Amino acid sequence: MWRDAGLVAGKDLRIELRSRVATNQVAPFAVLVLILFAFALDPDRGVLARAAAGLFWLAVLFSALLAIQRAFAIEAADGGRDGLRLSGLDPAGIFLGKAGAVAAELAVLEALLAVGIVVLYDVSLHGAVLLVATCLAATVGLAAAGTVYGMLAAGLRVRETLLPLLLLPVVAPVLLGATRASEAALGLGTDSGWPWVQLLAVFAVVYVGFGVVAFGPLLEES
After folding, report:
1. Nearest Cα to Cα of residue 164 among 173, 179, 153
2. Which residues constitute the domain of residue 94?
3. Is 177 exposed, middle or buried (0-12, 13-18, 19+ CB in 10 A)?
4. How many domains does the chain have?
5. Blockwise average pLDDT, block size 10, the chain, 222 residues
6. Is 84:165 a contact under the CB 8 Å cutoff?
7. Which residues contact residue 79 at a Cβ distance below 8 angstroms, ignoring those fewer than 6 apart?
8. Which pTM value belongs to this model?
9. What b/e readout covers 54-91, taking b as 16+ CB neighbours within 10 angstroms?
């Protein structure tokens, strides 16, 4: 399973490196979202600083939708999905590989957006360990849930519009938990962020486990 996961993740990441879709489209989109938020809110009243954590994770979530759609668009052309079914690869390995590739892309994107948050919103870091743990748990949860629902919508003609409708309500706990934990890490909240990290970890474990079990039937039905 782990060998197959490495093969699939390596394939997806090599395709992205060669096509540069993430570099030329997803990353500029995420930065543009942060800039538009800066225009929409009044920076003189400290609104941006107080809302920085939530805006950061909204940008990550919107960009994750693009990354997930791209991950399954790769398999849509030239019978790629049929090739996966006939490849003999472990479906659990395929799931872990595709989710791992999406998570790696999101991690790079989050690092870029963190720089943008510091530059545009004038915030400072107070809890580095908490922020890293938050990003790790939230990224794994988003990637796992996105891969499950991306596969569910992949075989449908309306997958571009159906995926957001399926995924956004499901990842609402991730958005809430990651925002609250990040607020604590940035010194913007009074509560401890670690209970929210635990919620994110539970979400990630549930969807990773569900994806490992259910991805095979979803792949056959897509």
Report:
1. 153
2. 2-221
3. buried
4. 1
5. 85 82 79 83 71 89 87 69 71 89 91 84 81 94 92 70 86 92 82 89 94 83 66
6. no
7. none
8. 0.88
9. bbbbbbbbebbbbbbbbbbebbeeeeebeebeeeebbb
